[in-house]
Design a protein that fits this description.
This protein has 211 residues and is α/β, with parallel strands linked by helices. 22% of the residues lie in helices and 30% in strands. It has one domain: Metallo-beta-lactamase, Chain A, CATH 3.60.15. It binds zinc ion.
Amino acid sequence: MIFQMMQVGPLGVNCYIVGDENSREVVVIDPGGHARQISELLNSLRLNVSAIVLTHAHFDHVMGVEGLKRATLAPLLVGEKEKRVFESVERQGEMFGIAVPPLPDPERWLNEGDVVEAGNFKLQVFEVPGHSPGSIALYNAENGVVFVGDVLMRGTIGRTDFPGGSLEELLKSIRTKLYTLPDGTKVYSGHGPMTTIGEEKLLNPFTKNYV
Ligand SMILES: [Zn+2]
């Protein structure tokens, strides 16, 4: 598996580049900014981008989309239930005093059970609403890794006070989707360090009573 991580954008979002070592096809997850640095890294590693995927459409996760799309011509994939949040990106940025580059329309809307491919590397889509209505997690069973955006973080959970957020739904998403994955699954979040499903089940104080 190709695996690269970069902290990007004004709020330091984790952007992940993952894919297939043989074909050197990759998926870029959450290019939250620094599009030029991301494309330079892609070029220096001789990687081809099959798709740009958003775990959700909060403005800090999307600020590099426009630049990266121009550089790579890769299609943009977003959770279908995130449409309304996706369309509000400029307004979200304004509330933080940040101008968000205009977003291109997604080429594909993702739903539960869809698969995103980069060569022979596959990411399975789980709908995990709660932090935002159309949040998705991307799971690669072969390598035991899941990219969860802002749903679950080491020792904590995502905020639910943004439009369309719901604590009840968030906990349900974690319990019924993420916590059914093998304990050894590595969890890569939109912010902060890596963790595992097993560690969070044991130690995360926010989900303790729900496992
Ligand atoms: Zn978010």
